[in-house]
Amino acid sequence: MTELQSIVFVVDDDASVRNALKSLIRSVGLQVELFGSAQEFLQRERPDAPSCLVLDIRLPGISGLDFQRKLAEANDSIPIIFITGHGDIPMSVRAMKGGAVEFLTKPFRDQDLLDAINVALERDQARRQREDEIATLKDRFEWLTPREREVLPLVVSGLPNKQIAAEIGTSETTVKVHRGQLMRKMGADSLPGLVRMAERIGVSVKKS
After folding, report:
1. Which of 11, 122, 200, 203 is deepest in the core (most CB within 10 A)?
2. Distance from C-alpha of 61 to C-alpha of 118, rounded to nearest angstrom
């Protein structure tokens, strides 16, 4: 599979700042796109690739901090790096509590921004990988038969085959078959592995 190129989005109302950031970010081989406002950024259909947002605090229309909140409300988890020429401690605290990767006050060192971008892109890549893994597990879960789905929470709760058989009204031998099948279909090579998979897709453990 071809690895998608990471992209950095810059939102700043100062054209000279945008262009300077574009040159800096491109100098390390990253793709970059520029926007003068949060609204412009929202109109862009973002590619399905690791990305982060370099966001000015003061913008025309909605502020950077309010935009961060709106993205969170929309369940948009793009990592954000704030830059500002008018920052203060309350602003930085609010930004970091909101999940920002970094809060940089202009003028900042180029390397500080590049380091923050690297952290942000790694964070987004890790998030995408987690989501892909969960989607794969959910697809595997869909391939289970209704009976195997019934057995799964009993297995991950640690119940022995005999007790599972009594619980669902079948034979212990049949339970062994179901257990083997669901382990194979889920791609689990051990019970602890199956437990972790079940937890990640929200399968509730049967209480004994």
Report:
1. 11
2. 29
* Identity of the amino acid at 142: E
- On whether the CB atoms of residues 20 and 14 are closer than 8 A, the answer is no
Phi (first) and psi of residue 65, to 5 degrees: -65, -40
Q: Is 80 exceeded by the pLDDT of residue 117?
A: yes
User: What is the C-alpha to C-alpha distance for residues 27 and 91, in angstroms, rounded to an integer?
Assistant: 30
Q: How far apart are CA 128 and CA 107, in angstroms?
A: 32
Largest Cα–Cα separation, the chain: 74
Residue 15 burial class via C-beta count within 10 angstroms: exposed 0-12, middle 13-18, buried 19 and up: exposed
Q: What secondary structure letter does DSSP report for 56? A: E
* Closest C-alpha to 85, from 102, 106, 59: 106
Burial of 197 from C-beta contacts in 10 A (0-12 / 13-18 / 19+):
buried
Q: Say how many residues make up the chain.
A: 208
- Single out the residue of 31, 24, 29, 39 nearest to residue 9, CA to CA: 31
pTM: 0.81
Helix, strand, or coil here: 10?
strand
Q: Round to whole Å and give the CA distance between 187 and 197.
A: 9
Q: Once rounded to an integer, what is the mean pLDDT over residues 168-172?
A: 92
CA distance 96 to 114: 18
| 63 SS3 class | coil
At 160 the three-state DSSP class reads: coil
How far apart are the C-alpha atoms of 165 and 171, rounded to whole Å? 5
